Amino acid sequence: MPAMPARPPNSPPPWVLAALYFLAATLPIALALMTVGRGAGAFTRAGIAAGIAAFVMLLAQMVTSGRFERLSGRLGIDVTMGFHKWAGPVALAFALAHPFLLVGPPDPDRPNRQARHLAAVLEAPGLADARLALLLLALLVALALLRDRLPFRYEVWRASHGLAALALVAALLWHALSDGRAAGSWGAVFWPAAVALATVPALWVYLRRLAGAGTGWVVEENRPVAERLWQVTLRPAGARPFAFRAGQFAWLAFGRCRVPLCDHPFSIASAPGSGDRLRFLVQEAGDFTGRIGAIPPGTSVAVDAPHGSFSLDRADAGGPVLLVAGGVGIAPILAILGALAERGENRPVRLLYACRDPAFMVPEALWRVDLERLGGRAILLTDSAPDGPGVEQGPMTLDHVRAAMAGLDPARTTAFLCGPGGMMARAADCLEGCGLPPRAIHFERFRYDAQGLSRKDWRRMGAWVALFGSVAGAITLFALA
Ligand SMILES: Cc1cc2nc3c(=O)[nH]c(=O)nc-3n(C[C@H](O)[C@H](O)[C@H](O)COP(=O)(O)OP(=O)(O)OC[C@H]3O[C@@H](n4cnc5c(N)ncnc54)[C@H](O)[C@@H]3O)c2cc1C
Predict the structure, then answer these.
(1) pLDDT tens string 230-273
(2) Ligand 1 within 6 A of 443 CB?
(3) 65 CB less than 6 Å from ligand 1?
(4) Among the listed residues 341, 327, 345, 347, the one whose alpha carbon sits nearest the alpha carbon of residue 369
(5) Homologous superfamily (CATH) for 217-307
(6) Rounded to the nearest 5°, which phi and psi values hold at 278?
(7) For the structural domain made of 316-456, what CATH number should be given?
């Protein structure tokens, strides 16, 4: 049975998510200040509010870890993970402000007062939970920001990140319940319920995988298709083919390891209607992918899919489609191209495909037939000396993007970009320069670090700063009210 195209997830638009985030952070602050914080001074009230905001933001981190389609479905995993990454340090800033604000400002008449109170916070036996929470949070943030420079494997980091996050939430819950300022009568119900709401879905992702969800696939074929690039084909061996949209990705775990720590995200390179096989392109990039070529046919695979919002349903119906791929970023682009060809679409389609070296390019057989069926046109670029006809000198410039856009109506064109961060940022800026509206430019990032930011990314980060700033503003207002 061929895999069916899936309907897009019914996830809320970004502004609704931002409003929910703001409400979730500020509602308990308002409750706490109306009850336990009533009559307290402005600094104490601000301290209570900063602590509560930090706790709520950290609980939200549990569900912004990229595994919840209902949340990240419309945003995309890269945007969700980017938010997750920046919300951590902001929560740490609120958490650090919490004890300082509670202690209050320096008093010129009692010069040692502030230092004495802070020392008391550091030593008080009843605040061991708070100290542990602050230490864990600082460690979590530091290790996340330095992750790519750490001398241990990504999987080890992921395991420690998840376990430390659970320990942090437990310590915070203990602190909130044992410290009357955050608990009040409503807090005894509110905080355990909030913790359950945040952690149960996160644990569910892991438990259902441990229980065998997604199993029943095996490697049918694994062959090299370019320099350090492998095409892995899976066939169902008991699993039911699932519905997905061209451009989406799957979490794959090869072999016997069922823990989600062993899985890696890979874009599905085959189109939904192309049969029950799933095709992936995997580039050797690190510990796991460096050994991908050694995985023999017959190996069992667990597939957790579909995920992601990088898909055709984001395109203007009937409008032109521009596909921009860099390196292994061609994987989801192949699926989109295949889906367009299967549907027999007659809209204009262009492909801009860039690689550092011709040896890294996938064989033309993987995309040429579909592109020709669509009457589309390709521009191929390589950074090293181009070999063969039709390949131009890279890296990508505005002229290449203009050439790809030639004759297309920018107001109706949708662009799908997947490749190295720097290349996508440049392509996105060039496309905006060609008149494409930012909402018509869609990215799929294979790495969550901020490698190369486009103008669209900077605007999005500006929106996050505004959201975090509005939480800080609400804390100030509540404290002064
Ligand atoms: C949505 C998405 C789709 C992707 N599609 C493809 C694809 O089609 N083909 C392809 O070759 N690569 C794809 N990748 C990248 C691929 O997941 C990583 O290259 C791979 O996980 C690296 O694992 P490693 O153990 O070999 O490398 P490591 O040395 O362990 O890590 C190298 C870097 O890869 C990233 N990484 C490692 N493990 C994970 C993980 N489990 N989850 C997220 N990031 C991780 C981290 O940034 C890490 O710093 C995709 C990534 C994402 C997020």
Answers:
(1) 999 999 999 888 899 999 999 999 998 777 778 899 999 999 98
(2) no
(3) no
(4) 341
(5) Translation factors (2.40.30.10)
(6) -115, 130
(7) 3.40.50.80
